[in-house]
Every structure is written in C-alpha cells, then in structure tokens.
Amino acid sequence: MKKWGFNVVVFFCFFLMSLSVEAAGALQISYTVSFPEAQAHYADIEMDIKGLSQNKLNLHLPVWTPGSYLVREFSKNVESFSAASGAKAVAFTKTRKNVWQINTQGLSSVKVKYRFYSFEISVRTAFIDVTHAFLATSNMFFYPEGGLNLPSTIHINPYKNWDKVSTSLDMVGNDPFTVKAPNYDILYDSPIEVGNQDVFGFKAAGVNYEVAMYGGGNYDKERLKKDMAKIIEVETAIFGENPNKRYVFIVHNYSKGGGGLEHLSSTVLGAARDGYAKESSYEGFLGLVAHEHFHLWNVKRLRPIALGPFDYENENYTTNLWIAEGFTAYYDNLAVRRTQLFPVDHYLGALAADFNTIDNTPGTKLQPLAMASFDAWIKSYRPDENTVNTSISYYNKGAVIAMLLDLEIINDTQGKQSLDDVMRYMYNEYYKNKKRGYTDAEFKQAVEKFAGKNMDEFYRKYINGVDNIDYDKYLGYAGYKAVDEYAGLEGPDLGIRMVLVNGKLRISGVLRGTSAWVDGLNVNDELASIDGVPATDPKTLMLNKRVGEKISVVVMRDGQMLTIPVTLLQNKQVKYHIESMSSLSPQQEVVRKKWLKL
Fold first, then answer.
1. CA-to-CA dists, residue 430 to 159, 299, 341, 417, angstroms
2. SS3 of 505, please?
C-alpha cells in the first residue's frame, strides 16, 4: 500500500515535470539589450516570450558560471523586474533567490523587463561603462524552467557610437547586432563584447580566428597573428582535429590585468595593455592564450562526467579539476615551448616555479589533489589568510602531475608514446564516441593503457595522498635534476608574509609550523620592532639572527601593543632550478627530445 502510494506520487510529480518541460519546449524567446545608463553600469534587458500554454512560468538565473567554480549569486544584480502582456501588467512572485514565478494563466505571450548592474571587472562577470559592454551571458539572461534546450535570439541596441559586436554566436542574417543561440548551454558559453574594440583575424588549423582587443595596448598585431597561430597548430596536433569553424579571443587590456575563462568556441583574457613589448610578459600572455585555447578540448569537450550537462542552480562537484585545469596548465607552457617561442631554459624555469609553489605551500601536506578539486567551491575560489596552510592548488600540482605522467609514459615506451596519446584517446573515446564525460577510474585506465602498467601506487601517493613528489626520479628520465638553491643554508625564518600599509609592515599570512605559527604571531598584527629595532624593511628583519635564537617581537594588535617572545626556527622554504645532468644515456636523449620537441 505504501509502495503503491509512493509510486503514484512519483508518477504524478514526473507527469507535472513533463508538462513543464513540454510547455517550455513550445516557447519562442528573444532578448533585447540596451544601455540607456551605461555610465552607471546598467543594461536594460527585455525578454520576449511567446507560445505560452502553462499557468505559471518560472524564470531562473544561474548562480555560477562554468569554468569558475564558485556560487556568485548573479541575481543580486537584478533590479526593477516587471512582466506585462501587451499594455497589461502581469503578476509575479520571487520564489527563490534566483527564481521569479510569473502568473501566465490565459496568456500566450509575456514580456519581462529588468535592469542588470554590471560593475565587476573580471573575465567571468559582466561589466559596462561608456567605453564598452562585456556581457557575461551566464550572469545576465534568465532561462525558463525546463527549457535549457530552447533556442533564443539576442538583439543589442548599442550605446551611442559603439559599432562592433564580438562573440562566437552566429549572426541572424547580416545584422551584426542580432545573434542567436541554439540552446542555453551555448548561450551561457558565449560571452559578448560590444563597443569599439580593435578586431583582427587570422586562420590556423583550418579555423577562422578573431581577436577582439579592448582597452588599447602596445601589441603588435602581425606578431600576435603569427605566434597565436603557431600555438593553435601545436595544440590541434595533439588532438588530431580542431572542432570549431570559428573561434573568438576577447582580450581586455587594463593597466594591470590577467586571468582567463574558457568557452566552447571563444575565450576571455585579461592582459596588461603595456605588457606586450616586454618579452617576459609577452611570453606570459602567450601562455595564457595557450591555456585557455587548450580548454576548447580539455574540459569543454573532453570533460569530467560531473561537468555537463550543467546544473546552473547548484555546485557541480568533481575530483578531476587537477586534470581539467592542471593538465591544461601543463600543456600551456609546453605548447608554447613546442612552437620554439619558449627557449628550453624558460620552460624549465616555469616548471621549477611550480615545484617551488608546491613545496612552499604547507597545505600540500594536508590536502590531497583529488580533494583540492572537489573543494574548489569552498576553498580555491574563497581563499583566506589560512588557505596556504590547508590546501594546494590543483593548477600547479596538477601541472606537475601531468609532467610526471608524461615523462613516465615517454620513458616506459622508449619515446613511442606520451601524455598526448592519452589525451587524444580520451577525446575520441569519450567526447566523440561515447558522447559523455569520463569518470576518475576511466581516466586512470587510459593512463595505464599507455604507460603499460598499473598506476595504483602513483595515484595513492600523488592524487589521493600527500606524499612528497620525487621530482628527480621523473626529471631523470630526461636527464635533468631539480637543484634546491637553499639546501644547506641554515638561516632562520619567521614564517610570515607581509604587506606594507601606510608605511608599516602588516602580517598578511602565517605559515604552518614556522616560528610565527608556533609562538603566536597573528595575521593583521602590525610589526613595530624586533629586539628593539624598528621593523620597516622586510629584507632586514632576520639580518644577523640565528636558528634557535630567542627574539622579542613587538606588534600592534587591535590597538594594543604586545611583546611576543619568538624562538627562531630553521627556514624550510625551497628554491628550485632545473639542471641538465652532465652526461646523458641514449634512453635519456630519446626521452628529452620527445618531451621538449628538440
């Protein structure tokens, strides 16, 4: 009896849900975006919905954007929501933080109007001012409940003299200010840049590429075309095909800028407008290009099974961001190296920097790499003063794990195969053939397939455990070794990170297990003096001090002066560089040439 009753309820709920989806499936949706108050950072959005047959319509706004694993609550930026049918206002109720329910009984169409405040400069959030509009579509556009598969059109009324739209969405007819999306997954994966951006293009791997530069800068278009094309060709060769017909780089140039966010057929990059002429920062930009472009395969198509279809209402948990992001962070610099744009020593320097980050982060001893991926929603994207002590970056450590696996496979197969073969196999097997994401076990099986051996111990130590990474074992396959420049030094270390605020040193971080940690120096303490000497220069704090020495640290804490005795402990920080061994075996020569494409 209970079971029968339960089944009836389940059937009824499923029936109602089916009606909702069916009703949503008949809808025709278009948006109009205007900027009457661009100077105040607002977009006015009209959502025109036709083909209604249901009594109620729930409109949802995503709470996060794919590729950036944090619930950002975009609905906080929605103002002046209203609904009307013709000249008649239509009643609505806000039922959740991101859901508006409209009474559509007896209506065949409804027009929703709202304003969206856009004043957060980042690659993942909408920003509007009088110079341009960056429409981060997942932030701004409602979708009808059950209707993620619906197509829509977006018409843009540009502000004053804006004359360009840059997006991977297709135009409607020949109108550059009207674009269309076949479904909401595509819409939310296709940001739109509107303004007077500098647009140029080139062709690479048989694909048309567009670069939209906002904010000016000292970039050389012809050099960028040539160098970006080389990176694209190298990355395409890894997977054997480029799945796009057209791809768009949206680049925001600011006085200081960085970061990127991947999309299915485009990416958004942040850059320093005056950094292109300096070789080190130009190499950094090329690495960013390589990183976000590599994502068009790794994560946008070859993906962990949890990352699609997306749930835009909640966190989407996976233990595989060390693959999705970490492997991409490995291949970005490697791809630039393969173009010969990176000298070998620059590439090895970037690897050594990852080693330093890992070994100088106390959290690497506490948080396994798989859990770093899973906890991205609450740790990686919500860093605080103690993050360094409790977690590890799946970018840096994931990149190093990719390097270990690459060298392992190259060595075990005498240079016949590499991690490239794993990535190509996974792309074909899961994205193209099975048309779904992969599980942890399936990726591990692919690694074992090409390494030719069981990888349980490797996973136990480095993916699900917190063992020290044996850099020299794997670098040794290619005739290299990691050298710690601080090895043998016996200097003390307080174990604090500092910032200069109004001419005074303030503690911004305390590293686990250090002198400051043990004896109780705190974040936000203002350093006044050490052994009576004013603390003004972080470089001189430990001059003439010895391990084991007891010092007197005077700090200002919450308006009170405190004297804290501290016993100085050994500095345990590392600083690696990578050196070539003096002589190489034939096997090491093979591995090195395969790895670095010498």
1. 44, 12, 32, 20
2. strand
What does 210-262 look like in DSSP terms, one character per residue? Answer: EEEEES--S--HHHHHHHHHHHHHHHHHHHT----SEEEEEEEEESS---EEE
CATH code, domain carrying 263: 1.10.390.10
Task: Collect all residues with Cβ–Cβ distance below 8 Å to 7 and sequence separation of at least 6.
Answer: none
- pLDDT tens-digit profile of 116-131? 999 999 999 999 999 9
Q: What is the number of domains present in the chain?
A: 4
Q: Is the pLDDT at 318 greater than 60, yes or no? A: yes
Residues 6 or more apart in contact with residue 403 via CB below 8 angstroms? 330, 351, 474
Q: What is the CA radius of gyration of the chain?
A: 27
HSE-up of residue 239 (Cα within 13 Å, Cβ side): 26
Same domain membership, residue 10 and residue 141: yes
38 to each of 153, 162, 192, how far by Cα in Å? Answer: 22, 12, 16
- Could you give phi then psi for residue 264, rounded to 5 degrees? -60, -40
Confidence grade of residue 23 (pLDDT, cut at 50, 70, 90): low
User: Does the N-terminal peptide bond of residue 565 adopt cis geometry, omega within 30 degrees of 0?
Assistant: no
103 backbone dihedrals φ, ψ, rounded to 5°? -80, 105
Measure the CA–CA gap between 300 and 561, rounded to whole angstroms.
Answer: 54
* DSSP state for residue 195 in the 8-state scheme: E
Closest by CA position to 563, among listed 509, 527, 512: 527
**What is the C-alpha separation between 407 and 395, in angstroms, rounded?**
18
Of the candidates 169, 314, 294, the one whose C-alpha atom is nearest the C-alpha of residue 234 is 294
Torsion angle of the four alpha carbons 280, 284, 287, 291, in this order, in degrees rounded to the nearest 10 = 170
Q: At a CB cut-off of 8 Å and minimum separation 6, what does 562 contact? A: 525, 554, 555, 556
pLDDT per residue as tens digits for the range 577-586: 999 999 999 9
Which residue range is the domain that position 361 belongs to?
321-485+586-596
Q: How far apart are CA 314 and CA 72, in angstroms?
A: 11
